[in-house]
Amino acid sequence: MTIEVSIYGEKDYFYLALKDRLTRAGVLIVDNPSENTIKIGIDADDDTDILIVSGLTTHKRSRIIISIYDLLIPEGKNKWGSNIIYEWLEHVKNNTQPTLDTEEVYYWVHIRDAVEAIISLLLSNVFNDIKGHLHLCGRRAWSNDSVFEELEMLWSRYTNSINYSHTIESLSKIPNPVKENRGYLRERPDLNLLNKELLRAGGDGWHPLTPLRTGLMELLAQNL
Prior knowledge:
Layout (H helix, E strand, L loop, with lengths): L3 E6 L3 H12 L3 E2 L8 E5 L7 E5 L9 E5 L2 E2 L10 H11 L11 E2 L2 E2 H12 L9 E5 L5 E2 H19 L5 H5 L19 H9 L11 H11 L2
Parallel strand pairs: 1-2, 1-3, 3-4, 4-5, 5-9, 6-8
Antiparallel strand pairs: 7-10
Helix pairs in contact: 1-3, 2-4, 4-7
């Protein structure tokens, strides 16, 4: 039986990524929903089955609410939390130093992992039993200075490649963006319910697969 879905909300990067993944999963996207259509709202006020919102936005009109924090979207600036990385990238390109709050951390999660988790819940046999407020973000805390240093390294490798200026030192220098776990600086959103429902859906729970470095490389490639 084909699953029908209607999507409500601004057609931003997240909307397009979710729609594309649903289509590839064989889900039928419809504009005029019927009684059997699953309604997905993206930061919208419509009465929906699944409401996806950014950060601490609160809504109570949906059976399932998914709050997404610190979403890394490589394609461009967006309202989902990664604009600060685009600001850092401009500083890296211009060889300037931003004012970094080293006491601030983010729980970055790639859009691909976020969308995949939503699809896993939607297509599972337990979807009709899922209800409540699920929080979605990365599992590890990333400090601002560590992520900025990672961007600097990736940009340096790119410029060295196009200028044929690599050295043994530049190729061997691979900083670890996880210098220390500073999760105590900001409490991570509670991932327990998301992990539980993904386990019930037949998966391995909430384990994002895209490394931060990969996401930053994609962001760099999309915004040269």
